[in-house]
Amino acid sequence: ETGVTQTPRHLVMGMTNKKSLKCEQHLGHNAMYWYKQSAKKPLELMFVYSLEERVENNSVPSRFSPECPNSSHLFLHLHTLQPEDSALYLCASSQGGGRAVETQYFGPGTRLLVL
Amino acid sequence: DAKTTQPPSMDCAEGRAANLPCNHSTISGNEYVYWYRQIHSQGPQYIIHGLKNNETNEMASLIITEDRKSSTLILPHATLRDTAVYYCIVRGTASNTGKLIFGQGTTLQVKP
User: From CA B108, how far away is CA A53, in angstroms rounded?
Assistant: First the structure.
């Protein structure tokens, strides 16, 4: 256990559905991240939140909408996804505000399948 | 951030030391070497990091060469549960945010 939890662990959704992924960190960190890992590909950073403010958005399509209501919780709202969005979505957290040399701790991920 | 080069795969016998190399010949003075691993379909797990000196923790040791152009992660007594993809990542303060750039890593197979 890393102190970062993600729910659900598995999700199957249709292209017209709306769903949300939840991440919670119990480490007292102040930065949180969303990553995407597609099959056979390296992890790709999607969003970075530092002190509840979004500080990075890596050209992610608007069908992915992050929300960070406080420093312990991070959501990824999904709507009208495409089959190519099927992937493992990983949440991470760190202490220090999202700077380069902080150690990030990852959750177990949500395995998403879009039909 | 500097790029890294790792062998795509390695085998190790259970109970023996696993030595995973990483080349980072373009590393700059303020860049750290980080190691993470990812067991199949799980989130990456932080292992260790260092700047210049060798580092050791309960999981592994990190040996960085004097010129800092390469490093070796050592798992002293590999177990079957250490089978995973191991990522060597170089990160520095020049980055604006904490972006971790994962390459292809080394797939370590620990065999009985």
Answer: 38
